[in-house]
Amino acid sequence: MPIRRLRQNGDKPFDDELPEQVTLVGGQLRLSVNAFAIDDGHEITLIDTGASNAWHPTMGRLPQAMDEAGIDVSRIRVVCFTHTHLDHIHGLVLADGRDAFPHLARLLVPRQELGLFRAEAKLERFHGMAQPFEAGDRLRTHMDVIGAHGHEVGHSCFRVSSGGECILIWGDTVHVPSLQFDRPEVTWEFDDDQDQARESRLRLLALAADDHCFVAGAHLDSPGIGRVIRSGGSFRFEPQ
């Protein structure tokens, strides 16, 4: 993604010198795209689905990733979206047009974004299946919704707890991990509300650090999971 996607001081393009830890590829920012599977021993809940063939040609590798992880798609009965941007929802449909998850029973979408989801013509056959959720809901025994609005109107984080540990699956809270942990005030061009996105990021970073939660992010570098540590007046990320 071009560096101009970064924003600072409201909605002004980022014009500071990039820190040396921000690695560019051909002069552009590298953006990972991840989805996350929660296995409770009975069935698997998938958080986001990637882009399939709806965006860049280097995306759409979720089926191969699930094969590599030993995940049987027939066990995926529930799909939850952090929000409805195309790189999170279009993986419902494989590149050849078949359903990616033939045994899907529940499709959960942020209430504020049901209209956005139902505007996606390619996903029309799923429109009637979509069920709304909102911040504060408990979706599964160990899975709660935390509002993280800003990047999109219904952008949501899922807190999953088990065995005395927790993980925050936080969607697009961070786009450029090499920069935004140290400088969480930096926003992203596609944040629907820059100020609210910044507030949500700061709140979730503090929550993850203070509660010693793992975090899982759609755009954190692969494998996309780690811990947030307070570092002076900012934060740092420790991949796991």
TrEMBL record:
Zinc found in the keyword field: yes
Organism annotation: Mesorhizobium opportunistum
The name this protein goes by in its record: MBL fold metallo-hydrolase
Pfam families, alphabetized: Lactamase_B (PF00753)
UniProt superkingdom: Bacteria
Keyword line: Hydrolase, Metal-binding, Zinc
Ranges where the Metallo-beta-lactamase domain occurs: 32-219
InterPro entries, sorted: MBL_superfamily_lactonases (IPR051013), Metallo-B-lactamas (IPR001279), RibonucZ/Hydroxyglut_hydro (IPR036866)
Family: Belongs to the metallo-beta-lactamase superfamily.
